[in-house]
Specification:
Helices cover 32% and strands 40% of the residues. By secondary structure, the protein is α+β, with helices and mostly antiparallel strands. Strands 1-7-6-5-4-3-2 form a 7-stranded antiparallel beta sheet. Strand 2 and strand 3 form a beta hairpin.
Length: 170
């Protein structure tokens, strides 16, 4: 009987610790990733802003569906399909499109999180481009709150995508 009592207390303690971590986790995380490319600014801008190229260099994207395409770029909407056991769809909307200067999007995976990007492009010379990306990840579900503790992992994933892009365009 004592074993059952102590097991119950242990389970309650573990559950309280888990929910404490979830409720104490930040709802939002903002981080920046910078990368220099040995490629002209127009090539870097094209590969980073044209949805049809994303599956070639962003890890986990299997396909892209462009839903709305405006001439200005602003207001364009597309879906990124992530496959695997827990397949997900991120709906993205272009908020800012300034050719070879700036690009901003708002992404949403329903009931999980929002992913906002503000990317600045800077020409460092004829064949060099600097990209500065400020990313805000916002949890909209208790399921994803623990992901807000993983800032280094998110930075590493974006940086690895940029390395993959470098291999593609340099």
């Amino acid at each position: 009987m004592k074993l059952l009592k102590y097991t119950g207390i242990f389970i309650v303690f573990i559950a309280a610790a888990y929910y404490g971590l979830v409720f104490m986790a930040p709802k939002e995380l903002t981080f920046q990733v910078n990368e220099d490319f040995n490629a002209p600014i127009d090539s870097v801008f094209l590969f980073m802003t044209d949805p049809s190229y994303l599956s070639q260099w962003v890890e986990g994207i299997d396909s892209v569906n462009e839903e709305i395409n405006t001439n200005s770029g602003v207001g364009n909407q597309f879906q990124l399909y992530y496959q695997g056991e827990n397949s997900m769809v991120m709906n993205k909307t272009v908020l800012l499109f300034q050719t070879n200067k700036a690009f901003s999007t708002h992404g949403l995976i329903e009931n999980l999180f929002e992913w906002d990007e503000k990317i600045a492009f800077e020409s460092l010379g004829h064949n060099q481009t600097r990209v500065s990306n400020i990313i805000t990840l916002k949890s909209i579900s208790h399921k994803t709150r623990l992901l807000m503790y993983a800032e280094d992992t998110h930075k590493k994933n974006v940086a690895n995508n940029y390395l993959k892009l470098k291999e593609l365009i340099e």
